[in-house]
């Protein structure tokens, strides 16, 4: 005896195949997408921090090169006695182009009101300050400061460096406080 398939039975079997996702399948797909989104966001945050670190390092290199140029100008024009005038100055003034994220010079800045990832010169302390972007994607404002100062220090004679008759002072852009982030 052969069974006959009615068009009604075959139509119901076709509808069962075309039903779409089950609730379990949908939950699995949503879970996989959520895990991928979390991984992507954490990787993006890491890349942003690395990009900020590299940008700050490049700016510091440019600032130190500008300072060296000022020192060399004084030596070339036989005005070494004016080296002490460089201490406490704003090193951004020696750059051909100021960084796009440089806010300017302030006397008594309210740091919490200044945007993160920007430079400014604090005239009251004669420090160039960078406000790190330390807030993560899901939290509020949290930042740290990188502080730099043009300082003058007396060069000392060392065995590796022969002493000169007139121990010339050394001018350098130094980082104040902890330097762990940039190393």
What does this structure look like?
This protein has 183 residues and is α+β, with helices and mostly antiparallel strands. It has one domain (23-176). The protein is 36% helix and 18% strand. The chain contains two helices and five strands, in the order ααβββββ. The protein has helices spanning 7-17, 23-76, and strands at residues 102-106, 118-122, 127-131, 145-154, 169-176. It has a five-stranded mixed beta sheet with strand order 1-2-3-4-5, with helices on one face. A hairpin with a 4-residue loop joins strand 2 (118-122) and strand 3 (127-131). The radius of gyration is 31 Å and the shape is elongated. It starts with 6 loop residues before the first helix and ends in a 7-residue tail after the last strand. Mean pLDDT is 81; it is low at 136-141.
Rg computed from alpha carbons, rounded to a whole number of angstroms:
31 Å
Tally of contiguous helical segments: 2
Number of domains: 1
Helix fraction, binned, reads: 25-40%
pLDDT < 50 runs, ≥5 residues: 136-141
Q: Could you state the order of secondary-structure elements as H and E?
A: HHEEEEE
User: Widest sheet: strand order?
Assistant: 1-2-3-4-5
Mean pLDDT over the residues:
81
CA(first)-CA(last) distance: 86 Å
Percent of residues in β-strands: 15-25%
Content-based structural category: alpha+beta
- Multimerization status: single chain
> Which shape, going by the Cα principal axes?
elongated
Most strands sheet: 5 strands, mixed
- Count the E strands: 5
């Amino acid at each position: 005896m052969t069974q006959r398939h009615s068009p009604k039975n075959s139509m119901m079997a076709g509808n069962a195949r075309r039903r779409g996702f089950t609730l379990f399948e949908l939950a699995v797909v949503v879970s996989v997408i959520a895990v991928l989104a979390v991984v992507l966001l954490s990787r993006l945050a890491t890349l942003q921090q690395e990009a900020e670190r590299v940008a700050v390092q490049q700016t510091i290199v440019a600032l130190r090169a500008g300072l060296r140029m000022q020192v060399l100008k004084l030596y070339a024009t036989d005005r070494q006695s004016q080296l002490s005038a460089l201490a406490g100055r704003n090193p951004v003034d020696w750059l051909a182009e100021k960084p796009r994220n440089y806010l300017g010079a302030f006397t008594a800045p309210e740091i919490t009101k200044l945007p993160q990832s920007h430079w400014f010169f604090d005239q009251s302390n004669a420090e160039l300050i960078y406000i790190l972007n330390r807030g993560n994607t899901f939290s509020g404002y949290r930042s740290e400061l990188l502080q730099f100062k043009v300082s003058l220090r007396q060069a000392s004679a060392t065995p590796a460096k022969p002493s000169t008759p007139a121990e010339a002072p050394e001018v350098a852009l130094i980082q104040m406080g902890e330097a762990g982030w940039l190393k």
